[in-house]
Structure formats: structure tokens, C-alpha cells
Amino acid sequence: MDFNNTHDSVTRRIRAITDRVSMAIENDLYFYNQPIEELHGGAKVLVRGREMGMYASYGYLGLLNHPRINEAAKKAIDKFGTGTNGVRSLAGTLTIHNELEETIANFKHTETALTYSSGYATNLSVVSTLMGRGDYVFSDKLNHASIVDGCLMSGAEFRRFRHNDMEHLEGLLRNSPADVAKLVIADSVFSMDGDIIDLPKVLELTKKYHAWLMIDEAHSVGVLGEKGTGIEEHFGLGDVIDIKMGTLSKTIPSVGGYVAAKKEIITYLRHASRAYIFSAALPPAQAAAANEAFKVILDEPWRIERLNQNTKQFISGLKGMGFDTMLTETAIVPVLCGDDDTAFAMTREAQHNDVFVLPVVSPAVPEGLARLRATVTAAHDPSEIERAMDVIGEAGKKLGIIS
């Protein structure tokens, strides 16, 4: 293929990305995909021989390398080996898979659960399997890409409501046909902004307009609620969400995704969801690690308390310096930079001073809203957070974001 041929649309798209990456690398502004040599307790990493404070992790409770979780994974390898050699339906279901799904169901207070090979595959497959042509899907404007892709793949009428705007959502529901299937879907904690969906109002509207409710809890499990069980506990609502989706790769230090719901829904997905039917089963060690992690969360509630303390320290400290952290209430803390170049430059200053943080730029966020997407965990010591804030503050002053 001649990549100098700009008449081909595929070539133009490839060139646009590769040129942008090359320019960033040439100007010491490219920090994605860095090889991490070692993980030091969840709060620090070793990169190119330098120990750096980790502020880009989704491991909110600091469970990575937890001895109980590691031991469960090792025992699973000794018992089952490293893989399953097939899909769950035909060759790959192990007792540890069933144990994991029972643990998830108990943790999320549902009748049963189903696991997938990734969080992305979970949303993509669940939405597109449940909904079809002639149905209506209502999705928050800032929902994760996997939700958007699932809505598009379903073939249903796709309606996006303004972010956390319940009046707009009600208008869309009111104007939809009364005799069609409807699904309202939203993130619990929004992955780029850190704010929380107004679940009580969403629940009220889904009941009023007879719609199904699906919530993506990728960033709320282990984060929201006194016990860390998620958004229902946070709002004190009990078991009210029809379809509870989550990941096994953030607070839970493994890989995969899950959906928890009534038995009829899970039975349907188990026999109709293509990402489940045609994907290999989770490796035994990963299933066992995830299974134990849910139990550790309940056994060690001090981790949620520590996370809440660290979150308050980080948000209030950055705000006190003059940074705009948008509407975050959680461990996801956007540090608004404005244009993409400033976000890249902020990253360079932070990384050169051993704070591992990364930028989110257009088109992942709207132009003019580029940011550092910083996160804190229960593994961080308050003194480490102070140092990270000092580094970010100095960078912000140097680049004119704050005075």
C-alpha cells in the first residue's frame, strides 16, 4: 500500500493519526502506551528505571497484588491450568466461573450473573442482544464508547439525552411511541468527568414511561456506597436496576466484564448473546482473582474509607490551587487544561517530575475541554498526594492555567 496516496480515505485516516503521533513524539509530548516495568503497591510504578507516583490507575481500592487475590489466582492455575481451550457453552465452563457469577450476584443483590471476556464486549453484546429494530434506546451523551457502539449495533432507534439532564430525558421518553420496548442506559460514574448519574430521577422516569433500566457500574463498584457495592447503595435504593453491568479490570484487579440481573434475563443472554457464545472463557486465574476480590472488598471496608479521604484531599487541594475539576465527586478527577496542546504539555511537566498522569484530548472529549484525567486510590499516602498536587500546581502555573 502506498501511504503517500491521499486520494484513498483509509490512507487519509491512517495518515492523520500517524502524523499526529509522530509530531507528539518529536516534541516530547507522547506518553501513551509506556511500558511499565514494575508495579509498586498500586501507588507507584517503575518506568524506564524511574519510580513514579501512579495517578492514572483504575485500581481504586489498591487491590492489585493483594495476597489473598494472588493466592486464589495461583491455586486456580494449579487446579485448572492457564486456559479453558474453548467457549463456555461447549468446552470452557469451569466450576470457578460458576462460583464467580454467584459471588457477583450476591455482591450486586441479584438472582444471578453472567461474565464476558471484557467490559467493552459486555456492553456491546448486552445492549445489542436485548434491543433491536423498532425498539428505542436512550443514552446519556457522555456514556462510554462501548455503550454507544452497543446502541448503534442493536439497530434500535438511538436517542441521546444531554448529560445528566433529566428534563431532556423525560421529553425524549414522552415523545417516543407508547407501544415499543424502551431501554434507558447510563454510566453510574462517568469515566471522563467523575460525576454521578442522578439515579433516583432516572429510576422515576423509567417507571413512569415503562422503560428498562441498565447502568454501567465500571467506575462505581468499590467506589460508591459504604460497603462499596455501588450506586444503589450510594443512593439507598435497594435492588432497583434491571440490568447491572460492571467490569472486572478496574477496582477488581483482573479482566473481563459482567452483567447481573434476574434469571430470565441472564438465561436469555447466555443463549443469545454473541460475545458470550463465541468468546473463549475467562482464564481460571483471572476468574479466581475476580471472585476473591469481591470478597476482599466486603472484608476490608477501611479501603473505601481511605479512598474517600484521599479523594476529598485531591479534589479540594486542586480546587484550592485554582484548577477546574468540573463536577467530579469521585476518585476520577479531571484537571481541565483547555486546548489539546496544553494538556499534552501539562502531562510532559508532570511525567518529567515523576507523576504518572495522562491527558484526554479531542476527539475523546470536545475541543476546548482537554484535561488531565487524574485518579487517586486507597493505596496513596496523603503525603504522596500532596507531592503530586505540588507538581501539577507548578506545571499549571508554568503553562498559565492557574496563577
Question: What order do the helices and strands come in, and which of them pair?
Answer:
Elements: H1 9-26, E1 36-40, E2 44-47, E3 50-54, H2 67-80, H3 88-92, H4 95-108, E4 112-116, H5 119-130, E5 136-140, H6 145-154, E6 157-161, H7 166-174, E7 182-187, H8 199-208, E8 212-216, H9 231-235, E9 243-247, E10 257-261, H10 263-272, H11 274-277, H12 284-299, H13 302-321, E11 332-338, H14 340-352, E12 355-356, E13 359-360, E14 370-375, H15 382-398
Helix pairs in contact: 2-12, 4-12, 5-6, 13-15, 14-15
Which features does this protein show?
Aspartate Aminotransferase, domain 1, four-stranded mixed beta sheet, 44% helix, seven-stranded mixed beta sheet, Aspartate Aminotransferase, domain 2, 403 residues, globular, alpha/beta
